[in-house]
Amino acid sequence: MALTAVRELSFGMHQEARLAFENALVGRLRAGQEAAADELVHLYADRLLRAASLLLNDRHLAEDAVQETLLATVTRIGQFRGESSLYSWMYSIMLRWCRRQQRRRLIDSSLILLPSEELANIADENTSAEAQWDNMQRSSRVSRAVSNLPQAYCEVVVLFYHEEFSIAEISRMTGKPEGTIKSLLHRARQKLTEALEGDEP
User: Fold this and answer.
1) In this predicted model, what pLDDT tens digit does every residue of 69-100 receive, in sequence order?
2) Same structural domain for residues 121 and 99?
3) Nearest to 115, CA basis, from 189, 54, 61, 169
4) In whole angstroms, what is the distance from residue 29 CA to residue 118 CA?
5) Which domain holds residue 38?
6) Are residues 133 and 58 both part of a single domain?
7) Same domain flag for 107 and 118
8) What is the dihedral sign for C-alpha 62, 68, 70, 76?
9) Are residues 92 and 142 in the same domain?
10) Are 154 and 137 in contact (CB under 8 A)?
11) Which residues of 21-32 are buried (b: 16+ CB within 10 A; e: fewer)?
12) What is the CA radius of gyration of the chain?
């Protein structure tokens, strides 16, 4: 099956079918099948890159984060216990890597990748050039505002809104109580509102 078809099939599945697909992929990764590693990259690299770009605000560091995450996934697949989805486990690996980079103060301002659905809106052929420019400006402001949030706020916003993880999943991934996650989201929304209102042209 072509890799593009595999990717479309995976993301179009219901949760139960997707978990079965992931379990089969994990089995092939554990067996050391090279094709399984290629599928892993094709399925998750772009999605991880968009999230890492928002977390790090640096395209080159984000690419490093994805490479390290994919490598760690393949080499440490034996440690995956199946208590969450494969992607959640991979995201946890990437989140720890991003936190280490943030602690080392190696983050530079760079181009922020926009979420895929926002890019789709910008590129809509039925939208006028002026409207496309307005969409791009608005999307850029939102992405910049998210990346400029304090680390704890940025993480929960990306996890909840961009990656669409549940409060319970975010709690497990970050090690913070669910009540803390809800509080962080509430305060992050307030800060984003203030930042975007202050950034209006």
Assistant:
1) 999 999 999 999 888 889 999 999 999 998 88
2) no
3) 54
4) 33
5) 1-113
6) no
7) no
8) negative
9) no
10) no
11) bbeebbebbeee
12) 18
Using one digit for the tens of pLDDT, what is the confidence trace for 108-133?
333 343 444 444 443 444 545 455 44
Strand positions, DSSP E, the chain: none
> In Å, what is the CA distance from 63 to each residue of 54, 84, 95, 185, 200?
12, 24, 13, 26, 31
Q: Which tokens belong to 37?
A: 């590693």
Mean pLDDT of 38-50: 93
Note the pLDDT of residue 102: 74
Q: Write out the two tokens for 46.
A: 């772009």
For the chain, how many structural domains are there in total? Answer: 2
Q: Which residue has the tokens 């996890």?
A: 159
- Which residues lie below 8 Å from residue 201, measured CB to CB, with a gap of 6+? none
The arithmetic mean of pLDDT across residues 23-39, rounded, is 92
In the predicted model, is pLDDT for residue 5 greater than 60?
no
Determine contact, residues 145/173, Cβ cutoff 8 Å.
Answer: no
Give the pair of three-digit tokens for residue 95.
Answer: 């989140």
Q: Give pTM, 2 decimals.
A: 0.63
Residues 9 and 64 reside in one and the same domain: yes
DSSP string, 155-182: HHHIIIIIS---HHHHHHHHT--HHHHH
Residue bearing the bigger pLDDT, 111 or 155: 155
Q: Of 98, 113, 128, which marks where a domain is finished?
A: 113
